[in-house]
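Protocol step 6 of 9: fold each sequence in the batch and record its structure tokens directly after the sequence line. For illustration, a two-sequence batch is reproduced in full.

Sequence one:
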Amino acid sequence: MKYTNSIEIALPREQVAQLLADPAHLMKWLRGVVLHEPLSGIHGELGTKSRVVMQSGKRTMELTETITRREPADLREIPYETVVHFDREIDGAGMWSLTRDRLTEATPDTTLWESESEYRFSSLTMRLVALLMPGTFHKQSQHLQDFKAFAEQGKDVREEKT
């Protein structure tokens, strides 16, 4: 299963890239994250493996995230026309996913974030969920909207009433 989402954020690309890469902000815009801790490497840097614990309702999932691409490595003073890339693989029980995020400068004060996601399932249960409820996976892309609200307005998903 593959799909692509995009969103414009009313902030310069360099600022968006720095906010995305900062682990201190992760739980403010990524719903369901209970824990995100590096197992090896430095958070967000190329090659880093992290343990990720997510909660959705009463269900808890433990995943392993590997940063497979981060360009440029230094997110300060990004040259004009440079596309910022953040790619990661996520392994969990019965599933594997790849996300390729690209940040481009729409205007000097606006960033276009394109996020391409791919899911593969090894367990019958996960394959059935994907077939019967594909929107469940696409809905996880809510994080683009949540990040936009966080970056532009300071909204924290943890403060929302459910």
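Sequence two, same batch, same settings:
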Amino acid sequence: MSDKNKEKDDKGLLESIKLIVSKEDKIKDQVESDRGLERYAKDLLLLMSLVKDYYQGNYRNIPYRTISAAVIGLLYVLNPIDLIPDFIPFIGHIDDALVLKFCLKRMEKDLLKYKEWKDEQSASNDRNTDQDNKKDKYAKTKDNKTDKKSADKDKDTDDSSK
């Protein structure tokens, strides 16, 4: 593949990712309301998180084929006009579920790696938050002791002036 074609593919992928990220709320609503997708809800939300982190540059340790499969799967779920139109009761989302299952199967290992990375990030953020809370608590305790010493000193000054 020439550099020009690769650049064009990358640009198309980023445009598709941008569209998906802008429709994040719609995807979440669709997952919550669609019976056919409920078994894939966690994976679909993780997939959405992966695409979002990729787009924001937070996570790039992923093969091109995997991010492409994620984008294709999410675009298919977003598109109301597909093999079986979504508005048909009971069977409208069967094709969405099948496409999603296929995409998830193709990227299973990479999605697990991403989940591990995401969990590490959350754990790191939790540790940082705990440390910040301890610092805040220490600072408040120190401020309270300083305020108490200052109040005692003021009281002593008032007592001596009487």
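Proceed to step 7 once all outputs are recorded. Observation for sequence two: The chain has a mean pLDDT of 79.
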